[in-house]
Amino acid sequence: MSKVLLVSITAFALAVIASLCVSCAASAAEKGFDAANPDFVKIMDFFIEKEVDERNSSMLNAKQRELIKIASLTTQQSYELLKRETAKALELGLTPIEIKEAAMQCAPYSGFPRAADALKAIDEVFAAKKIAIPLKTRATVNNDTRFAKGLDAQSAIFGDGMRERAKGGPAKMTPINYYLVTNCFGDYYTREGLDLATREMLTLVILVNLGTEPQIKAHINGNKNMGCGKDFIAAMIYECLPYMGYPRTLNALACLNDVFDKK
């Protein structure tokens, strides 16, 4: 066999092998993220479902755990994993309204863009499962009532000191305090679909995912005022661990200790 022919055959064989490798890679990618990244998915799923979820199951029920995951994934802008979790949440019995309200609750804390993209991802899952959208409105306020209703919600969580800030009415309030009453509490906390305690739980989830320590401490107090004990709040924080990582988890636990151990 001539040297030229041998080189040609070798080159052809290498080209075939390379083509097969590309084809296999493309095939795995076409099957989806899980098939393309089996080692990562195995570690992730085991940690979330077998370690974190099982340890927290005595403190958090299945619905609470799923809502925490949806809020965490929305805050972390992980929309592909959010689609995966939305499908799982539906299988576990969460309603479409509960799922969308959890994502909407993120808007005043992580901003409209993250919540909007999350809602779009959720809508894609709903469409694939033939769930009719838009869902029935859950709003309970209008432009004339959102201030009073928002102040009621804020005061129910943080006490009547909130009413003191609003004593002079909107005209006498700083812009941030006015927006907190009307938009943050008036537009979101007053909505149907999730109760006030659940919304306050999700707010803390969003904040620990963001790592905003002053606000974390404030809303640990808010959850405490809603009847949540230290162990329950710790379970909430640990449920967020897979989505926000260890540094923010450690910071949130330090905030928890500061609030509950403060004399």
Features of this protein?
mainly alpha; single chain; 263 residues
Element order, helices and strands? HHHHHHHHHHHHHHH
The biggest beta sheet is recorded as: none
Give the CA-based shape. globular
DSSP helix count? Answer: 15
Let me know the number of strands.
0
Helix content: over 70%
The Rg value, from CA coordinates, equals 24 Å
List low-confidence stretches.
none
Termini gap: 89 Å
Q: What is the residue-averaged pLDDT?
A: 92
Helix/strand-derived class? Answer: mainly alpha
Q: Strand portion, in percent?
A: under 5%
Can you describe what's shown?
It is a single chain. This protein has 263 residues and is mainly alpha-helical. 76% of the residues lie in helices and 0% in strands. The chain is built from 15 helices and no strands. Helix 5 crosses helix 8, helix 12 (196-210) packs antiparallel against helix 13 and helix 13 crosses helix 15. The mean pLDDT is 92.
List strands and helices in order, with pairings.
Layout: H1 3-31, H2 33-36, H3 38-56, H4 62-75, H5 79-91, H6 96-104, H7 107-110, H8 112-128, H9 146-158, H10 161-165, H11 175-189, H12 196-210, H13 213-225, H14 230-244, H15 246-261
Helix pairs in contact: 3-14, 4-5, 4-6, 4-12, 4-14, 5-8, 6-8, 9-11, 12-13, 12-14, 13-15, 14-15
Gist of the model:
The chain is mostly helical.
